[in-house]
Write a structure and sequence with these properties.
The protein is an alpha/beta fold. It is about 35% helix and about 20% strand. It has one domain: Vaccinia Virus protein VP39 (Rossmann fold, 3-Layer(aba) Sandwich), CATH 3.40.50.150. Strands 3-2-1-4-5-7-6 form a seven-stranded mixed sheet, with helices on both faces. It binds S-adenosylmethionine. The site of S-adenosylmethionine has 23 residues, from α6 and α9.
């Protein structure tokens, strides 16, 4: 079968811990399948944030606990990450997170309804080799697609610890006139991949733009 998008992630087998496997048993209760599911849920919340590639779900869970009135949609294809998230949801009795467990482009390509108030992408897979750049999630088509699901004035935040990816993202935002640059907030917490990048001596580059 021909894939619609070039995969932007590596399907890792990864060991699933007992905690993650327990969590995964409840996956169906938290899945959203399409934009219409989000529209329905949005009625119960003040706003809706989407985190793409949430990894170990550290940021997603801490944000959801701080802001119970906001609906958080977490998107991840990595089963152990989804298992960790589901275990945390159960342990901490978190009510305001739902999960899309496929390539994000399958969700946002489907419909143009404006449902998101904030989109967060922390350390997308860098694909550092030149021949793999075409696999990077952040490209012009992606920015165009995601912008169509974002409300007017809503925000997109992207960080990366790869200078070459950062230059590419900077150029894309210069072209993408449906976004305008916004002032960065003072970053206080760092994700697992951001911490790893800092530990290895790399800079964290951040981008914050508002939907025009
Ligand atoms: C480098 S990791 C970063 C994880 C986490 N944000 C962090 O900073 O610790 C990138 C994550 O994005 C996920 N990912 C990549 N492409 C994706 C896509 N098209 N849709 C959903 N998730 C994706 C991968 O599975 C991976 O877990």
């Amino acid at each position: 079968m021909r894939l619609k998008f070039l995969p932007s992630f590596v399907k890792r087998k990864g060991r699933i811990t007992k905690r993650q496997s327990q969590g995964l048993k409840n996956k169906d209760d938290f899945l959203i399948l399409n934009i219409d599911d989000i529209k329905l849920l949005n009625k119960e919340y003040s706003s809706c944030h989407l985190e793409i590639g949430f990894g170990n779900a550290e940021n997603l869970c801490s944000q959801a606990k701080l802001n119970p009135d906001i609906l958080y949609i977490g998107c991840e294809v990595y089963q152990s990450g989804i298992g960790s998230l589901l275990a945390s949801i159960k342990e901490d009795k978190i009510k305001n997170i739902r999960i899309f467990d496929k390539d994000i482009r399958l969700l946002i390509d489907e419909k143009d309804d404006k449902v998101f108030d904030r989109v967060i992408i922390i350390c997308p897979d860098p694909w550092p080799k030149d021949k793999h750049h075409k696999r990077r999630l952040i490209n012009y088509d992606f920015l165009s697609m995601i912008s169509k699901t974002m409300k007017e004035g809503s925000e997109i935040y992207i960080s990366t610890d790869w200078e070459n990816y950062a230059s590419h993202i900077r150029e894309l935002f210069l072209r993408a006139n449906f976004f305008i640059e916004a002032k960065l907030n003072n970053k206080k917490t760092f994700s697992k991949f951001e911490r790893r990048g800092k530990r290895d001596g790399r800079t964290i580059f951040e981008f914050r733009h508002l939907k025009n």
